[in-house]
Amino acid sequence: MVSLSVSTPNFTTPFVGQKLIFRANTKKLQTSYSPVRTPRCAVDASYGGNVPKFPRTSIWDPYKRLGVSYDASEEEIWGSRNFLLQQYAGHERSEESIESAFEKILMASFTQRKKTKINLKSKLKKKVEESPPWVKNLLNFVEVPPIEVIFRRLFLFAFMGGWSIMNSAEGGPAFQVAVSLAACIYFLNEKTKSLGRACIFGLGALVTGWVCGSVLVPNIPSMLLHPTWTLELVTSLVVYVFLFLACTFLK
């Protein structure tokens, strides 16, 4: 019994040794022939797989980051932005960097335009302040309405002028002039909230336009006017211009 228990390790020991040697050889085999190497951490892995990375992400200047000059047009900036987004599509950091540079350029352009408008207004205001007193008093009666208002009233008085020309063979433009005067007084009353003041301005524009037309029209060469156009018709066209200016730009 004692001899059997003592001799037992002599049979197991060589077997264990061969097993350990076999495992060691297997590990060496796997190490020497393994073509793929697993990354040690997530940072070592390539971001986005095979998606190319924007190389100018760390450039602070937005113009240099997009690859455009400082005097590039808006079409060139948009084109560079779209091209880069298409080229580096799928890489989130690259897309964010391109969009950030594009937004900075747009914001700088907007700020520059705003400063230019402010400087223009400041220059105009300075010129008005340096102008003679009669110019200041005249400008106090003038204002510029929205562009929609200007076009609507311009269309109205242009229609009156066309109507007068079309009916020139049948009679004078007295009715069209009366309608235009009423429209002018209406617009002035809507603006000034004073019917008396509106009537004074409207009649003043009518008289001024008629006097200017009576003086200027005879001096116009006849070749520039239609043969059927009378002095009264052309003078009424001048009146329409004065009525339009009065009801549109006077306060």
From TrEMBL:
TM annotation in the entry: 172-188, 195-217, 229-250
Keyword Transmembrane: yes
Organism: Prunus avium
Identification of the protein by name: Protein CHAPERONE-LIKE PROTEIN OF POR1, chloroplastic
Keyword match Membrane: yes
GO CC terms, sorted: chloroplast membrane
Protein keywords: Membrane, Transmembrane, Transmembrane helix
